[in-house]
Design brief:
Elements lengths: L1 H10 L3 H10 L9 H25 L6 H9 L3 H11 L15
Helix pairs in contact: 1-2, 3-4, 3-5
């Protein structure tokens, strides 16, 4: 992904830049390398963490910086899924972690 980003930046406003963007916007899910799988997993984890924080925000649940950091730094999709479920009913942000700290 760094290569793709650097290539786009290097092309600047040249006509080839739009061609490059079009090529990079295709579905890349057919790549099965360990790196591709890791990047997709990281993206899913980041998205799930954002969802948790958004739900808590919309529900008016205060989130400390310590809790926010714990959520965004988690890369375990199963744990994030549990936290997402708990975010729907948590009265305080720390309720997300109750079962995982037992």
């Amino acid at each position: 992904m760094i290569f793709a980003e650097l290539t786009e930046l290097g092309l600047g406003s040249a006509p080839a830049a739009q061609i490059w963007r079009d090529l990079m916007s295709v579905d890349l899910s057919f790549f099965r390398s360990e790196t591709s799988e890791r990047l997709r997993s990281e993206g899913r984890a980041e998205g799930r963490a954002e969802d948790i924080l958004r739900i808590l925000s919309k529900r008016g649940v205060a989130v400390s910086e310590r809790v926010r950091e714990r959520i965004v730094s988690c890369g375990d999709l199963d744990e994030l899924s549990d936290w997402l479920d708990r975010s729907l009913t948590a009265e305080i942000a720390e309720d997300l972690f109750v079962a995982s700290e037992a």
